[in-house]
Design a protein that fits this description.
- Two copies of one chain form a homodimer.
- Chain A is built from 14 helices and 17 strands.
- Chain A is of the alpha/beta class.
- The first copy, chain A, has three domains: 169 residues, MoaB/Mog-like domain (Molybdenum Cofactor Biosythetic Enzyme, Chain A), CATH 3.40.980; 77 residues, 2-Layer Sandwich (Alpha-Beta Plaits); 155 residues, Maf protein (Alpha-Beta Complex).
- In chain A, helix 3 packs across helix 4.
- In chain A, 44% of the residues are buried.
- At the A-B interface, helix 1, helix 2, strand 2, helix 7 and strand 10 of A face helix 1, helix 2, strand 2, helix 10 and strand 14 of B.
- Strand 14 of chain A pairs antiparallel with strand 14 of chain B.
Chain lengths: 413, 413
């Protein structure tokens, strides 16, 4: 079953508002076994809306339309549908009487713009005439068309509770069976990954996709087809091969977050973490504490931007700061030791570096970063050269620190 | 000048990745005076890509295409363009020799998939053959077509540095004149704001829009029309009235970030900041240090998730923690004092609260937050009840703390 998604609104084509509803609908439909071959966003222009709708009807089995159903002058979807499909608008009596009862209770004028909400193209079948959420379906030339509001919360509710069940009932059995897994990978280039995966010679019905999502690469393994052609065993076998090949370069799947993965490892091993940050300025701690329940394994730490605080709170020696500079392996190590002691943690992370745009030198250009990880016996330090603007350098630094901790915890278990 | 935007990628039509580049391009183009009448998103299917491109060419002056330019097997834009526009692909020698030099230095195989990047449709004019960012322009049937990568950071860079200047040079004078300003407002409901703005009775050619962008509301003031109809004086006058009406409820305009605004105020007044965080877990410090040059006014601070660290690093008294609990006005105040002393700052912020989803009680439900701001003479504490999930509570808490500091600094100056 093929579908198209059409989003309507000048606020979308002028870029004032980011269209999130089409992507949401696409994900829900894809996971339910449908294929979306195009999504369009059209301004509030009836002619263009009509053209897009007619084009979609000729080439797909169903269409999802969002936006333009409200009561203000720039809500033009019903007018466009009426003209394009030659279906005059007429009042839905149930909706009209509900609006009039509401207006009466408010003592508003009788010819309120709200009455516009009751005028629908001929053949429209409203989802919930008694509810406050607009929306209806229409079958035209054997194509099922759903019209929903553009407000994300309303659209999402209708999508789950009304559209997906009705679509499933309409032409049951004609959906594709879908198996999909996303592997999240850090510290590996897309092209190298591509070459490694190609060497596996996976079966032809397994599709592979690579999607950079800074600083990660997402690897998608997909099998999709008619129910009798699709084999869960072949899919699982392909996934096993990928996992075996990439090993710990994969940090998680689907909705995993690196901070969540690290948190689980810490919790499983009953270890407490402390963090001392300079160039990441709180970002490592913020990522750790974005996870519910992180107080079970995160004690806290220090953000020591000034050298004085590195000495005072973390006990970094003045001599080391003078001799090696704040951005050095020695200071990273001293910071990790300092916060380990200070917090009484079992393991600690520290960061020091130059996030830029200022502060670089020929010796230590912007992007120079030292990360340390200490426990009660050892301390490992890595040095990195990152590129990009300040925010990218901070992001990849925090991500690298979390990944360093992940590899340490895997090694330990 | 009319344009269309086409985004390409199965990751978009399957809803795996939210398309943010089309909305970004739309906003940039709208502000530069162009009108986008449709945006499409197409999967990695050469036939559909070609159809969308041909349709756009017949009805607009320029087309922006993003995605599908990479070196992996699912990057099919050049193949689709080649077929649809009947322009065979041929190697761009400059790009090819750069790739070969790179491969040679890496000692990779000669028939590397990277060479694919050099094969472009006939007539393609690459933006920067020497750079790592792909992209080119093509003029077909008097329509100017720009091809850019789908990676948001690369696309944004090309949009500003290459596409907009070239578009402006191509058919100068046929753009609409646009004046737009966005006011960023925190701590005010959209409906109340709407009522206040209506009372101003602004001229009819000034359009007003309200856009929630959690936790802010953005207020857009827009004037757009042919050059001789648009009056900058009337636009500026409307803006002045809005500013006068809303006063310090506006924290910035257009691209201002609250942390940037606060940073400027601190720098102007030569004040140094320290931060002590519990429920925000590093987010306040992270937002402050995301701003270049923040080391001029940010000393650092502590993330004290455990009660022990609140005592040890910040000197919060054990008795207060026992008597009032960690989430209390008294502990917020003690944390702010503690970090002020510890860091030697002129002013400090602290946060303590319950971000959830666990940890709430009938007395102190999830969303209960105390924030304190201390200087050498005084300390103010506010208590808040926020709602939403953990991440929303952390976001609005950090935002409220920064805004508290902003109002304090405005008051002081």
């Amino acid at each position: 079953m093929l579908g198209e998604i059409i989003a309507i609104g000048d606020e979308l084509t002028s870029g004032r508002i980011l269209n999130t509803t089409s992507g949401y609908a696409a994900r829900k439909l894809y996971d339910a076994g449908y294929t979306i071959h195009a999504m369009s966003t059209i301004g509030d222009t009836p002619k263009l809306i009509g053209e897009a709708l007619l084009r979609a009807i000729t080439r797909v089995d169903f269409v999802i339309v969002t936006g333009g159903l409200g009561s203000t002058d720039d809500d033009l979807t019903n007018e466009a549908v009426s003209k394009a499909l030659n279906r005059p608008t007429m009042p839905n009596l149930e909706i009209l009487s509900r609006i009039r009862a509401h207006l009466f209770s408010q003592a508003d004028a009788v010819d309120s713009p709200l009455e516009k909400l009751a005028w629908l193209p001929k053949g429209a079948d409203p989802f919930n005439p008694e509810s406050k959420i607009a929306g209806y379906q229409l079958i035209h030339d054997q194509t099922l068309i759903f019209f929903m509001p553009g407000i994300p919360s309303e659209m999402k509710e209708l999508m789950s509770n009304t559209v997906l069940p009705r679509l499933a009932a309409w032409k049951a059995g004609s959906r594709l069976k879908t198996h999909r897994r996303i592997y999240k990978i850090f510290n590996m280039a897309e092209s190298g990954l591509n070459q490694m995966i190609n060497s596996l010679n996976l079966p032809e019905d397994i599709s592979i996709g690579y999607y950079p999502d800074f600083p990660d690469v997402h690897l998608s393994i997909l099998q999709r087809g008619k129910a009798r052609e699709v084999s869960p065993e072949r899919f699982e076998d392909a996934c096993r091969k990928v996992e075996h090949l990439l090993g710990s370069a994969i940090y998680g799947t689907d909705h995993d977050d690196l901070a969540l993965v690290v948190g689980k490892l810490l919790e499983d091993q009953s270890l407490q973490l402390g963090v001392a940050e300079s160039c990441t300025g709180g970002l490592i701690s913020q990522r750790i504490t974005s996870i519910p329940g992180s107080s079970n394994y995160f004690l806290g730490g220090a953000v020591t931007y000034s050298n004085e605080l590195k000495e005072k709170i973390l006990g970094v020696s003045h001599a080391d700061l003078e001799r090696f500079g704040a951005v050095s392996a020695e200071v990273a190590e001293a910071m990790a030791h300092g916060v380990l002691q200070n917090t009484g943690a079992d393991v600690s992370l520290s960061s020091t570096g130059i996030a830029g745009p200022g502060g670089g030198s020929p010796d230590k250009p912007v992007g120079t970063v030292y990360l340390a990880l200490a426990d009660k016996e050892n301390c490992q330090v890595i040095s990195c050269k990152f590129s990009g603007d300040r925010n990218r350098i901070q992001l990849i630094t925090a991500h690298t620190a979390l990944n360093m901790l992940r590899l340490y915890l895997i090694d330990k278990s």
